[in-house]
Please model this.
Amino acid sequence: GRPTRSSGGCWSGGQRPRRGLACQRNLIWQSVVIERWGASMRLFLAAIAGCCALSACISEQDMSAVESTIAEFHARQAAGDDMAIYRAGSMAFKTSTTVAQLSSLNDAIRAAEGCSPPQRDKANMSTRVSTSGSFVTVLYVRTCARGTIAEQFLMRLGGDGPEVEGYHISGEPILALPRV
Model:
């Protein structure tokens, strides 16, 4: 059971309260356990914090490659080359969407009026490392005549360079378009 405070001032585990030398040994044992647990817990928390800090980092070279891949995506999008965008995507991207669905999203972007070129929102970037790989989420914003369009890219970092794993768009100019 849960230790209770005995009348003799020493902790007991539901047993007869300890007194004298036995009580002192018990208190010393408890303080050693607490110190060891505390040191282990501090080490464990430091390791977790270190992993979190490292997982939030991306090298300049990798970030440059991500930006280059997204610039290529945008160039193909503007040119209407949706098939090339689809082919360049990761396997997960290809299994989660079709060329027709991608073309529909890209048509909505192309139909939005008075949009500026997409700009990366440098304040909105995150990284994630898991057993599935390393990923970077990046947000791009376009200012249009009827509001802004936000594009969220989930990029998979791999040996052959970054690949688009996910692409999501939102914004008033997209919602204002007539539905087909």
Remarks:
- The longest helix spans residues 21-55.
- The chain has a mean pLDDT of 80.
- Residues 37 and 43 are 10 Å apart (CA to CA).
